Amino acid sequence: xxxxxxxxxxxxxxxxxxxxxxxxxxxxxxxxxxxxxxxxxxxxxxxxxxxxxxxxxxxxxxxxxxxxxxxxxxxxxxxxxxxxxxxxxxxxxxxxxxxxxxxxxxxxxxxxxxxxxxxxxxxxxxxxxxxxxxxxxxxxxxxxx
Length: 145
Hints:
There is one protein chain. The chain is α/β, with parallel strands linked by helices. The chain has one domain: 3-Layer(bba) Sandwich (Glucose Oxidase, domain 1), CATH 3.50.30.10. The protein contains four helices and eight strands, in the order E-E-E-H-E-H-E-H-E-H-E-E. It has helices spanning about 30, 70-75, 90-105, 120-125; strands at about 5-10, 15-20, 20, 55-60, 85, 110-115, 125-135, 135-140. Strands 2-7-8-1-6-5-4-3 form an eight-stranded mixed β-sheet. Strand 4 (about 55-60), helix 2 and strand 5 (about 85) form a beta-alpha-beta unit. Helix 2 runs parallel beside helix 3. The model has no long low-confidence stretch (mean pLDDT about 95).
């Protein structure tokens, strides 16, 4: 990893990297994401048809039903979920989905609570690397693909 580094709070542990996908609004994984393809299917969402697969999903908060945890875990299980998730607000539904995927399928999707003042710079990066440990998380802006 290279470039600027940012600190964050760990909500779900793991390490991942990917291109950021910044959402303008929160997303409900239940009914808003196709867990078979990773595509945003909420017809009212500004990023309709964007695909979260392998991306560092940046969203201000989660939205929706507790069933979203199962939809997120399923998308992660079949390989079309986000590589990592950055939030600005704690969301237990998102965290439970990532933790379920880690526990049931041994697939980590780190979830971190980023700082608002870092959000724009993180979203502008080509690629981000996330390392989320119990003592805290580190987000690194990576060069290249």
